Amino acid sequence: HAVASGSVSSGASGAAASGGVPREVEDYDQFYNEHVVPFVNAAKKSKETEAIGSWAERAWGFVRTAIFASKQSKKPADAALAKFVEPLSAVITETQKPNRTIPANHAKAFGDAVVATSWFTQGGNARAFAQDQLE
């Protein structure tokens, strides 16, 4: 996705050139710009939380990629889906590794929350999965 001044821009994406951006992606872009960008910017202001900002940017940015892909094709076979989500899996894995620069409570909270970004891998159980992550 295109990032301009820390925000996601539907109009600048590759899809725009080929006929437009799906409404769901535009809605996600609005969510991202209103909620994720301020969080990322705030997190990146401190050395203690800078990594969390980077992880959030990568994880929630990938969710946009997944939403866009879901509007272009059907769910792939499990092996292909696993390959597709490798960038998100890498972020989730990174959040689980000890990091002395991040306060433990911040790292644990974010590590627990970022797992919810993989909701789209759950098929018909995505809503229940996301709700379980909130609890």
Largest sheet: 2 strands, antiparallel
Whole-number count of domains: 1
Uncertain residue ranges: 1-5, 10-18
Radius of gyration from CA coordinates: 15 Å
Q: Report the principal-axis shape.
A: globular
Assembly status = single chain
Helix residue percentage? 55-70%
User: Which H/E pattern describes the elements?
Assistant: EEHHHHHHH
Q: Specify the number of helices.
A: 7
Domain CAP N-terminal: 28-122
InterPro entries: Adenylate_cyclase-assoc_CAP, CAP_N, CAP_N_sf
Pfam families: CAP_N
Protein name: CAP N-terminal domain-containing protein
Secondary-structure blueprint of this entry?
Layout (H helix, E strand, L loop, with lengths): L2 E2 L2 E2 L5 H4 L5 H21 L6 H23 L5 H7 L1 H11 L7 H11 L11 H9 L1
Antiparallel strand pairs: 1-2
Helix pairs in contact: 2-3, 3-5, 3-6, 5-6
Structure description:
Residues 28-122 form the CAP N-terminal domain. Residues 1-20 are annotated as: Disordered. One of its GO terms (cellular component) is cytoplasm. This is CAP N-terminal domain-containing protein. With 135 residues, the chain is mainly alpha-helical. It has helices spanning 14-17, 23-43, 50-72, 78-84, 86-96, 104-114, 126-134, and strands at 3-4, 7-8. It is built from seven helices and two strands. It has one domain.
